[in-house]
C-alpha cells in the first residue's frame, strides 16, 4: 500500500503542513486506494469526479505555499455520511425515493468539516433511513465488512467504518441513534464516539427541540484523531437551541495520550449482559472481558455492577420514543403518493407503530426516560465508567437482513439484537466504543462500550486514550485484504 494511506489523520495533517507530502499526492494515493478496494466493499458512494478532486487538491497546495492553511484537515479527503446534508451532493439516506435529492446547503457538521480544510470527495453508505445496524439498501447495495467481505459492516455508519478500516479515509464522521457509531466501530477495530446530547448540533432538521435521540459524532483509528474531529464537529450553533460547547476539546488532543498512571484508580462498573437479560452470542462477553483485563492491568478497578433499573421497562420506553420520532421522518416520504412500495418493511413498521401512539404514551415514555436518567446518575456515585459490550453478536452474513435469534433466543423486532446500545442514547451520555479483541477464529473484531456521566466527554476521551496505550497489539492488526490489495 501507499504509505500515505497508512497515516492516520493527525500524521497526515502534519505531513501536509510540513510540505513532506502535497495535497495532490494525498488525493492521488486515495484515488488508487478507492479503485483497489471500494468495488469489493462498497463503502463510498456518490464519489465526485477524480479530475475535480485533483484540481481542488492542487488549489490547496497553492494556498499552503502562500502561507494559508484552512485548518488541521487542510487538503485531507473526507466522505460525509449519507444522512448528513452536503451541498451539491446527493443526500439520499439510502432511499430510492431520495435518489435525485441534491442538498442545497451543508448541514452544520459537514460545513464545519469543510471549514477545517477537508476536501469532501463523496458520501459513505448507510442503511435505508439509517434504520438497522446493517448497511444495505436498494439504491447502492450492501457495504461489506473490511475484515471479512462475506459479513455485515454494521450500521448505520457501516460505510464510514469499512472505508476507515480499509484506509480509504484517514478519519470519518458518523451518526448514532441506536449504536450507529458504536456497533460498526466495534466490528472494525476502531474508535467510535457518541457524544453527550447536544455537543454536536444535528441539523438542519424540521424539529430542533424534541428530536434529540440521534447525534452525529467522530470515528477514527486513534483517540487523538477522534478528539480532533469531535472538536471540529462540536460547539453551540444558533440554529440548534439545545447545543452547547466544550472548550476543553480544543486543546485536549495536544495533551493526549496521558501518562501511564491515567487509569490508576479508575472505577469501572461492568454491566456485562445485565444479569442474563441481554442475549449474547458465544464469545462476545469473553472478548469484552479481555479488554477489561487490559484496563485492570493498567490500574483500573473493574467490578461487576448491577443495573439500578428494570431493563425491559427501558426497552419499552425506547420503543415508544423511537417509533414516535422515526414515524415523523417516514411520514414526510409517504406524503408523496406511490412511495410506500419503495420503502423497506422495517421503516414501514416504525411508521405504522408510530401512528398508533398517543401523546399520553409519548409523555409517559419521556417521564420514564427521565427516571432512567436519574437511575444512571445514581450509578455514577460508585463508578466513573460503565462498561458493556459494543454488540451482542458477531458480524453476520451480509445477505441476512438482521439476526432472528441470538444463542437460541428469538429477537422480536428488527433491532432487538442491538438493545445494548439504547442506554447511552436514552441518558444523553457520552459513550465510546473501543477495541477489545477478536473472535476466537481471529477474523472478526469486537468492541466494548464505555459510558461516562453526561457532559464528561473530555474526561472519557482521556481514559480512552490511556486504554489505547494498553492495546498496541490489537491496534497493529489490519484487515487481511490490505496485505493483498495491490496484488
- Rg over CA atoms, rounded to whole Å, is 21 Å
| Mean pLDDT, all residues | 96
How is the largest sheet built, in terms of strand order?
A: 4-6-5-12-13-9-7-8
Give the full name of the CATH homologous superfamily. Answer: Amidase signature (AS) domain
CATH topology: Amidase signature (AS) enzymes
| SS summary, helix count | 17
Give the N-to-C terminal Cα separation. 10 Å
CATH class: Alpha Beta
- Estimated structural class: alpha+beta
The figure for the number of domains is: 1
Task: Please give the oligomerization state of what you see.
Answer: single chain
CATH architectural category:
Alpha-Beta Complex
Assign a percent range to the helix content: 25-40%
How would you summarize what this structure contains?
The protein is an alpha+beta fold and 487 residues long. The protein contains 17 helices and 13 strands.
Verbal overview:
There is one protein chain. The chain contains 17 helices and 13 strands. 38% of the residues lie in helices and 12% in strands. The radius of gyration is 21 Å and the shape is globular. The mean pLDDT is 96. It is of the alpha+beta class and 487 residues long. The protein has one domain: Alpha-Beta Complex (Amidase signature (AS) enzymes), CATH 3.90.1300.10.
Features of the shown structure:
three-stranded mixed sheet; 487 residues; globular; 38% helix; 12% strand; Amidase signature (AS) enzymes; eight-stranded mixed sheet
Spell out the blueprint of helices and strands.
Blueprint: H1 3-6, H2 9-17, H3 23-41, E1 44-45, H4 50-65, E2 77-81, H5 108-115, E3 119-124, H6 158-165, E4 172-176, H7 183-186, E5 191-194, E6 215-220, H8 223-233, H9 249-255, E7 267-270, H10 284-297, E8 301-304, H11 311-334, H12 345-355, H13 359-379, E9 385-389, E10 405-406, E11 409-410, H14 422-427, E12 431-438, E13 445-451, H15 457-468, H16 472-476, H17 481-484
Parallel strand pairs: 2-3, 7-8, 7-9
Antiparallel strand pairs: 1-3, 4-6, 5-6, 5-12, 9-13, 10-11, 12-13
Helix pairs in contact: 3-4, 8-9, 11-12, 11-13
Amino acid at each position: 500500500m501507499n504509505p500515505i494511506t497508512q497515516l492516520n489523520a493527525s500524521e497526515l495533517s502534519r505531513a501536509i503542513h510540513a510540505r513532506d507530502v502535497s495535497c495532490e499526492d494525498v488525493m492521488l494515493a486515495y484515488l488508487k486506494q478507492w479503485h483497489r478496494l471500494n468495488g469489493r466493499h462498497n463503502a463510498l458512494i456518490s464519489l465526485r469526479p477524480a479530475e475535480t478532486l485533483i484540481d481542488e487538491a492542487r488549489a490547496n497546495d497553492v494556498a499552503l505555499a502562500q502561507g494559508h492553511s484552512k485548518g488541521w484537515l487542510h487538503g485531507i479527503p473526507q466522505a460525509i455520511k449519507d444522512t448528513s446534508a452536503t451541498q451539491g451532493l446527493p443526500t439520499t439516506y439510502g432511499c430510492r425515493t431520495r435518489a435525485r435529492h441534491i442538498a442545497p446547503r451543508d448541514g452544520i457538521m459537514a460545513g464545519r468539516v469543510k471549514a477545517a480544510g477537508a476536501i469532501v470527495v463523496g458520501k459513505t453508505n448507510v442503511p435505508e433511513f439509517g434504520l438497522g445496524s446493517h448497511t444495505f439498501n436498494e439504491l447502492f447495495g450492501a457495504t461489506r465488512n473490511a475484515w471479512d467481505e462475506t459479513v455485515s459492516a454494521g450500521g448505520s455508519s457501516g460505510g464510514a467504518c469499512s472505508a476507515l478500516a480499509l484506509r480509504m479515509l484517514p478519519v470519518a464522521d458518523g451518526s448514532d441513534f441506536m449504536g450507529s457509531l458504536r456497533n460498526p466501530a466495534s466490528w472494525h477495530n476502531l474508535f467510535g464516539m457518541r457524544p453527550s446530547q447536544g455537543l454536536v448540533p444535528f441539523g438542519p432538521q424540521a424539529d430542533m427541540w424534541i428530536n434529540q435521540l440521534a447525534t452525529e459524532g467522530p470515528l477514527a483509528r486513534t483517540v487523538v484523531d477522534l478528539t480532533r474531529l469531535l472538536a471540529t464537529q462540536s460547539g453551540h450553533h444558533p440554529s440548534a437551541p439545545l447545543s452547547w460547547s466544550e472548550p476543553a476539546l480544543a486543546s485536549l488532543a495536544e495533551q493526549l495520550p496521558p501518562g501511564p498512571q491515567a487509569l490508576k484508580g479508575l472505577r469501572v462498573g461492568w454491566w456485562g449482559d445485565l444479569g442474563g437479560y441481554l442475549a449474547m452470542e458465544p464469545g462476545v462477553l469473553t472478548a469484552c472481558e479481555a479488554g477489561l483485563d487490559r484496563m485492570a492491568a493498567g490500574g483500573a478497578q473493574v467490578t461487576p455492577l448491577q443495573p439500578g433499573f428494570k431493563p425491559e421497562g427501558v426497552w419499552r420506553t425506547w420503543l415508544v420514543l423511537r417509533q414516535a420520532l422515526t414515524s415523523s421522518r417516514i411520514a414526510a416520504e409517504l406524503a408523496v403518493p406511490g412511495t410506500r412500495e419503495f420503502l423497506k418493511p422495517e421503516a414501514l413498521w416504525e411508521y405504522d407503530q408510530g401512528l398508533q401512539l398517543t401523546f399520553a404514551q409519548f409523555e409517559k415514555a419521556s417521564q420514564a426516560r427521565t427516571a432512567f436518567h436519574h437511575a444512571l446518575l445514581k450509578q455514577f456515585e460508585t463508578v466513573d465508567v460503565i462498561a458493556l459490550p459494543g454488540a451482542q453478536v458477531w458480524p453476520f452474513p451480509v445477505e441476512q437482513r438482521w439476526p432472528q435469534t441470538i444463542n437460541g433466543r428469538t429477537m422480536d423486532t428488527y433491532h432487538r439484537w442491538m438493545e445494548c446500545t439504547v442506554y447511552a442514547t436514552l441518558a444523553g451520555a457520552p459513550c465510546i466504543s473501543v477495541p477489545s479483541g477478536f473472535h476466537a477464529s481471529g477474523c472478526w473484531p469486537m468492541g466494548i462500550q464505555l459510558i461516562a456521566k453526561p457532559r464528561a466527554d473530555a474526561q472519557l476521551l482521556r481514559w480512552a486514550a490511556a486504554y489505547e496505550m494498553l492495546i498496541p497489539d490489537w491496534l497493529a492488526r489490519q484487515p487481511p485484504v490490505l496485505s493483498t490489495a495491490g496484488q
